[in-house]
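Q: Could you write out the predicted structure for this multi-component system? I'm mainly interested in how the pieces pack against one another.
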Amino acid sequence: MLDRTIAPEIKDAIDFNLHLKPAEKFTLDNGVPVYSINAGAQEVTLIELVFNAGNWYEDQNIVAGTTNFLLKNGTSKRSAFEINDHFEYYGAYLNRNCYNETANITLHCLNKHLKDVLPVVEELITDSIFSEEELAIYKQNQTQRLKVSLQKCDFVANRFIDEYLFGFNHPYGRYTSIPDFEALHREQLLKFFKDYYLNGKCVIFVAGKLPADIFEQLNNVFGHLPLNKNGLPEKTYDITAKAEKKHRIINDQNGVQGAIRIARPFPNRRHPDFIKSQVLNNVFGGFFGSRLMSNIREDKGYTYGIHSYFQNHVRDSAWMVSTEAGRDVCEATITEVYKEMKILQEELVDDEELLLVQNYMIGTILGDLDGPFQIINRWKNYVLNGLDESYFYNSINTIKTITPREIRELAQKYLVAEDFYELVVV
Amino acid sequence: MHSFFKGMIQYDRFVLDNGLRVIVHEDHSTPMAVVNVMYDVGARDENPQRTGFAHLFEHLMFGGSVNIEDYDEPLQMAGGENNAYTTNDLTNYYIQLPSENIETAFWLESDRMLSLAFSEKSLDVQRKVVCEEFKEHYINKPYGDVWHKLRELSYKEHPYKWMTIGKDLSHIENAQLIDVKEFFFKHYRPVNAILVVSGHVQLENVKRLAAKWFGPIPMGEKYLRNLPQEPKQMQARLLEIEADVPLDAFFKTWHMAPRLSKGYYAADLLSDIFSGGGSSRLYQALVKEQQLFSQIDCSHMGSVEAGLLTIEGKLVKGVKMQDAEKAVQEEVEKIKSDLVNETELQKVKNKTESMIAFEDMTVMNRANSLALYELLGDAEMMNTELNRYQQITIEDIKEVANEIFDENNSNTMHYFSRN
């Protein structure tokens, strides 16, 4: 008779040997580095061009984001419609995103159509014209979109908490308001495009079941462009964090939930505490089995979900607790968050809970290495943060060997209630 | 060499004596395994006085089972992750974990199919959690109530008239343990379920584990679905409302064909021609050229039974609702009267091909698709779907446009900004 109360034997994930497939690196004729992962079974390729063209480099709010957004909206040879029609005809997806330090263009394409679409990617980064008409439509529609977002408590909370942490004059703390759209001019976009795309600094990541001639294809299309010739301008910003730490904002009188953000400054990935703190973060609020989730969702039912995480910035990070909770239980939720911090400072995590978190983290990394797109994404993170694969193996080793005592020390150092900003937006 | 080099996904299928259907898809390029359990029950199977129940129930499936107090902990200990979702048609649970530990997944999934713990505490907490989920997504957001209203406007009889989250918070607040038990033993039986195991697994081992863990579970009664059918709509409907939102918005739905009919594939391609990207018709005409809308979208529910095709958009400030509506209607009339271009149709077919290729990259997605197709009647659809799209002609598109875009088949909602 099967005894269902006895769990099957498991192999502890911390006993697995994890291996990160090395990225192959080559350099185009113009010096642009290319990192590639050749793996997978589907005949598809992902190509990501990353430029140092994030809002770190703009002189006026949203110039970087707007330039990036309008890359698809017209060259001297093709209208926005013709550009979209070209990519869509070949079933290719062309996306672009702007972040703090970097901005990218990402192409997902079936291998058989790569030759037809790559030259148009080149056209976009060398010949975009940012017409007045496209800019006007963009301003109008983005303004409307922003008005809708500003009614959402979570959106508003994310803006303010960043401002408290970094100050509005720092790229990490800045956000968009409607007058920013009105202040945009075509000339600013053209100049930003010229400095940071056409003559910019670029690194390329490719992954998939790569065609044998992928290097030639990339070199033919991008290898002759005037990229990576100039150094980047030195730009520094001071962090001017807000003095007052506790904030309550009413955005919608009739709101039935509040967006809660509790956050403190935290060092970047290269700091020796960063990897260890990832383990502490998982115990605290980093996954479904975390203490915050167990207490505030699974025991009290105050929220649909509560998470803690480190912000994904290159220079300075922040440790953030984020949730949307019922309006009447927001303060009770905050009290519980601090209570969990205090417990972590005072009591050692027991071995079984730690082993569970370790196994979970290793299992997640193992699952995350499934497929070429996921692997290149990890590599991209390392390259853009000035790290290499030793970071991967250090992380694995730290997860496997961290002790309850080290975790408590980190909690005593960082999970200090007075260091946290606290915000509720209803 | 993998079978999908040739665009084919290979799998094996067998049925246990208790009626549980099992599909195994091996892929040894990953160290992981996926265990996916799909139950043939969704929000459409709910009592109209107890809506939101299938989804609430999904939450309760994590509240402990008859022999295992905690579902999540042993799985996390085994290095696994899991999640679940409920739609109007079905409920799906999936686990990904290192393949060495696959038996843990069999142990957990089979025990909660055998019986739940039916704990009062779990029901108590999950009622609250789901109420917060309801508020977060459908009350505390501008336009959050749109789909509640559109479904009620478009369906008078069929249970698609309510959303998966439920019609009303009170339905969830009033759920009792007795309802939970009844629902479980009616729907969560092997005979109403499909198990898909994929990734770094061996067929023989899966057979052994399935027989060991799922084999002893009583078959249960096959649930025979007998839902009220929606009568053919004979007259256009209009709903006008005002809300505290910044922009006026326009919504219009039309009834379309069920999932397995040819009309579904044509309607799917039609929706892509209308709004599948930056070169689609509605975006180009209404957002870029005429600048009547700041956003426009055409989509359908993807439902098993006859669903809805929808056009929805937010109006540019200052544009009159009637002018926006008229412009939409012109595009609708155009596709009814003129054949689309061959290249335009080819474009959306290419997009579909590419979407399928990208979706099939992970074993998790492949497991999920296999379960869905088996639920629809034939797992082999995994390998024949693309062909069904390829066969659609420009004449089919015109025909389906004329079938769907009949004014008497339509439901319009004018959603006005109060300020």
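A: Regarding packing and overall arrangement: The domain at 24-222 of chain A is CATH 3.30.830.10 (Cytochrome Bc1 Complex; Chain A, domain 1).
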